[in-house]
Specification:
The protein is of the alpha/beta class. The chain has one domain: Alpha/Beta hydrolase fold, catalytic domain (Rossmann fold). The chain has helices at residues 144-148, 161-165, 183-198, 216-225, 251-265, 277-286, 308-314, 340-346, 363-386, 415-419, 431-450, 486-495; strands at 5-18, 21-34, 37-43, 47-54, 78-79, 107-113, 120-126, 152-156, 204-214, 236-240, 322-327, 391-397, 470-474, 477-481.
Amino acid sequence: MRRPCWFPVFATGALLISGAHLHAQAERFVFALTLEGQVLGIADSDIARFMGIPYAAPPTGAARWRAPAKAPERTEILTANKFGPSCPQASPQAFEAPAGNSEDCLTINVFTPARMDERLPVMVWIHGGGLVSGTAADPLYDGSALARDGVAVVTFNYRLGALGWLAGGSLSKDDEDDGIGNDGMKDQIAALRWVHDNINAFGGDPDNVTIFGSSSGATAVARLMASRRATGLFQKAIIQSASFRELARDRNAAESAAQAFAQALGVSQLEMRQSELQKILAMQGKLAKDPALRPAYTIDGTSVDEQLQDAIAAGHEQHIPLLIGSNGFPYAPDTQSMPAALLQQLLPMTSGLAPDSSGQKDAPARLRTDWMFSEPTRFVARSHAGHGSVTYRYLFDYVPDRADPPEAGEDGQEVRFVFGTLGVRSGPYSHRDREVSNTMRTYWTNFARYGDPNGASLPAWRPQSERDDLLMISNSGITCGPDPMKERLDLIEQLSSGR
């Protein structure tokens, strides 16, 4: 077996024309030797990038709806200078990957400082998109700014929609040891194994890995923390704006969903492996409004053992440092709105509720945000800390200094601040926006490096305790103090059922 290693290679680049003079500029290439073979990346003066590296074999043909297999070894150098295709998805994307969509999509990307003196802490990002959309090629997830702060950043694709989450016994009969369904989650675990085996080839420390994500990517982080299959593959976790209220299906419900999907296509479950991709995607879009057929985790007894909130409450998770938080902007998707009876019980307490920092006065939407994100986040922080693991909680309520305020319904708004990609699909940003982004990146990278976000030049961030202190990031500044949502969250906790 090859031992992974990393080394830079310099080559002469193209000639650039400037006025009447020609200036030769050196183009820089970097090689990394992974277990599967050599990869050729690109580097500028400060960042090295390796993109589109296969971390698993293509899940196509007979491998469709099966657990990911190891990527084959290569004898030729792989040119890794562009992102691979996104995984197939029926929903429109905010960003369309240049390489388009393909079932051969299980690729990984690595961003590092171009020069390093020591092994780097590693931050592995899991994109969101409700299990049906998203791509690691999204410019929002450009790891360059984080890498400049001295970490190795990893992003990757995983299977989505029906191709990633359909769970039928006939589909999985050859994979019983891997459980049924959850192929997207199995991809995530395969990517983490690849990182563990290969990240030292890029200067990263395989024993100092932090997984982080937003929205459904944050839920994936929590699921991985509670999965036996992922034990030992990471040492810290960051959960940004996760909803912990979605329930996993039991095997019977998952089998019924798979059977209904096959019947809608007019084929058997086994014959779906030969179905045209576009027919699968079209049927997925047609059935998307049926909650019983929507992509979901399956309690399979291998990757997923129980409902997520039950696992967290019982301490059935990795006891590792956790940074967790949500944002305070109204978010109320029709598909996940809170029970109407609960909303009516809570509305009377909002009569004196001031507009939030974005100017939003929609009390029902704010209560749905608290119900779906804020209260479950507090529950997870309390539970994780209560089982003896250091936990840091935040509330992101900062509105950028731009003409258009954040739109209600856009979750995970802290993402662009963490990645330093403020200008992507956004209005102009200010010096203060950049300062907030720089401060957040410092907190996040400190946590990835040490398990503690604090630093000499930062406002002190106290860990979770019985006082429920949290770091508040708002237009008034960045401070640590008592939870301003406590009264509302206490009432939601009292009135909510199912916990």
